[in-house]
Amino acid sequence: MRKAPMRVVLASAALLVASCSGAAGGGGGGGEPGAAPAADANLTLVVYSKFTDREEKAVTAALQSFNKKFPNIKIDHRGNQDDDKLTQSIQSGSPPDVAISFFSDNLGNWCHSGAFQDMNPYVQRDKVDLNVLPKQVRDYTEYNGKRCSMPFLADVYGFYYNKDLLAQAGYTAPPKTTTELLEYAKKTTKFAADGSIEVAGFIPSMPFYANEAQIWAPMWGAKYLSGPDGKSNMAGSAEWKELFDFQKQLVDFYGRDKLERFKAGLGDQYSPDNAFHKGKIAMMFDGEYRNAFLADTAPDIKYGTAPPPVSPNRLDAYGGGYSTGTIIGIPKGVKNPGASWELIKHVTLDTDTLVELSNQIKNLPSTTDSLKSPNLKVNEQFKTFLDMYGSGKLQSNPASPVNAAAIKIVNDFASRWIAGQEPDLAAGLAKVDAQINDELAQKLGK
Questions:
Q1: What is the pTM assigned to this prediction?
Q2: Where does it live in the cell (predicted)?
Q3: What confidence tens digit (pLDDT) does each residue in 383-406 have?
Q4: What pLDDT, in 10s, does the model give residues 336-389?
């Protein structure tokens, strides 16, 4: 099923990489760009992605629209390829021609190691104007000046709320501050006669569904790797402490054991039994793509969307949130990097292809022309994410070779924190800093 920040299967200190169909040699990792294929070239391009089911079919159709220009090039799209499978394909010497990743978390690592090729030579040769990409998209698809990926649609994480459940608690609009979120969560929660949770207003567990540290961080303005020397400094961050204090307040309200029993009975995030689809939770965070899932499997749920609530200390940040996106790149060692680039250029810059794919799977199109296209289907709920995308207030992950590792370390700490295994918040965050900074030193050889 679909992605989420958890989609990053952080099996990958090992690198999610891919290489050419049939060979690991050739193609290199930069330098002179590979020649474009001849118009009548006969070859097959293997593409790996994590898409499945309805989304896999839509992405396959988008990739195959490449045949309008190169009718003899076949596209072999292989969905449900996670980090482990992609890594194994590299190690076995038979990776794909094009790699699609749900997240940008590993990009710094791939660029730093050379696992993904720098596409700047292709961009310069073909005079591609990268200003057609919004700035936040340009930022999260490159690392240290290397364009190791292109955006293949974008994600913005917003706030979903069940209108009926909020109305029953006396609310007609979603919360705008984290203080209000705490109040709304308590009032929309329903307990059974035996004290068990029947409906949770908002689940504070992390990780859970789209609850991950990087998605919560913009609500408080918390930053990764924010120290003066570019290292982790969470122990010295008031914002991270506020975030974890908020989390614990709500866990304490529910009761840790009651919350765990309730969660154990909830459906998978990307199944029709998702708790929000079933009216078991009143509010949650998720990406814009959730609109398509709701339309597909829970069309009777009356719901609204809004930007995530923010700390009362930063009301001017309301309207923003967390942004990332699916990325696509040329793996190290492909045989025909010029052909790989032509496919990537087509699916990431062709307006009609992006708009049609966005309409199908409800990701945000990732060029300014596609965002303004009259053919883009926009309803009230989806418009929230378009507005957030253009707000200038979005926060993305830093470009770092240890980004994926840092996110895992923080999310692991969040789990221990609410489980009562980290009784001293300041000391726990200091340990997190030490772990992240150790990862950074090893990666950079310092």
A1: 0.83
A2: Cell envelope
A3: 999 999 888 898 888 777 787 888
A4: 999 999 999 999 999 999 999 999 998 899 998 999 999 999 999 999 999 998
In three-state form (DSSP H/G/I as H, E/B as E, the rest C), the secondary structure along the chain is CCCCHHHCCCCCCCCCCCCECCECCCCCCCCCCCCCCCCCCCEEEEEECCCCHHHHHHHHHHHHHHHHCCCCEEEEEECCCCHHHHHHHHHCCCCCCEEEECCCCCHHHHHHHCCECCCHHHHHHCCCCHHHCCHHHHHHCCECCECCCEEEEEEEEEEEEEHHHHHHCCCCCCCCEHHHHHHHHHHHCEECCCCCEEEEEECCCCCECCECHHHHHHHHCCCCCCCCCCCCCHHHCHHHHHHHHHHHHHHHHHCHHHHHHHHHCCCCCCCCCCCCCCCCEEEEEEECCHHHHHHHHCCCCCEEEECCCECHHHHHHCCCEEEEEEEEECECCCCCHHHHHHHHHHHHHCHHHHHHHHHHHCCECCCHHHHCCCCCCCCHHHHHHHHHHCCCCEECCCCCCCHHHHHHHHHHHHHHHHCCCCCCHHHHHHHHHHHHHHHHHHHHCC
